[in-house]
Write a structure and sequence with these properties.
This protein is mainly beta. The protein is 15% helix and 41% strand. Helix 1 packs antiparallel against helix 2.
């Protein structure tokens, strides 16, 4: 799972395997380790939350947590739908959330990205 943060924007891109796992298990997690201690780890995850109506995001204990309503998660994971986005109200500046299926790059060898989705513009 790729994470891109720019200003108040969070973008997640998931491979085929990760989308399948998200659809079946309801969660995909990743970590960045800056050292051996847990205090030096940064985590990010996307998870299904059955008790919400719109996507949401939180940050606690060095973890960015993207929460997705069950209906939105099932629609995205089980169809050709490329992604979904939502403006998350934080009470101050909204966070733009974008979750997408990860496509193969058009400008390099696709053997480096065998688990990515075929790019719709590829010949």
């Amino acid at each position: 799972m790729k994470l891109r943060i720019q200003g108040n924007s969070i973008r997640l891109r998931l491979t085929r395997t990760e989308v399948e796992r998200f659809g079946k298990e309801g969660i995909v997690k990743e970590s960045v380790h800056f050292g051996s201690e847990m205090a030096h780890h940064f985590h990010y995850e996307i998870r299904v939350e059955p008790n919400i109506n719109v996507p949401d995001v939180s940050y606690n204990n060095q973890t960015i947590q993207v929460m997705v309503p069950k209906a939105v998660a099932q629609q995205w994971a089980n169809t050709d739908e490329v992604g979904f986005e939502h403006e998350v109200n934080t009470g101050k500046d909204p966070i733009h959330l974008l979750v997408e299926k990860d496509f193969q790059c058009l400008h390099r060898d696709n053997t480096e990205e065998p688990d990515n989705y075929a790019h719709p513009l590829a010949g």
